[in-house]
Design goal:
Helices cover 0% and strands 47% of the residues. The protein is mainly β and 104 residues long. A hairpin with a 4-residue loop joins strand 5 and strand 6.
Length: 104
Amino acid sequence: MSVTRVCAVSDIEPNSAARFVVDGAPIAIVRIDDDFYAIGDRCSHADVSLSEGEVDPGDRHIECWKHGSRFSLETGQPDVLPATRPVPVYTVKVEGDDVLVEVS
């Protein structure tokens, strides 16, 4: 298991997402207010980038821009079709101004 610094807190605006590659894995870092989430950046239905989709801060989901599937930022589970398979979620920590992701 490795912990990698992916960006600074200030690199991601509140209620938005950005794409990073960590140990070869595409990961979307999502910021909702001062909370950060790390989720696999490929929709399990259409293989498109989730970081380009809309962040829903109210229920902590991100929506795939192509077909509208929504994924929980906490579990990776989809709750809207056409996606039926979850995407991976990763542990994210903030230390000072650094956003760190733990990838196993």
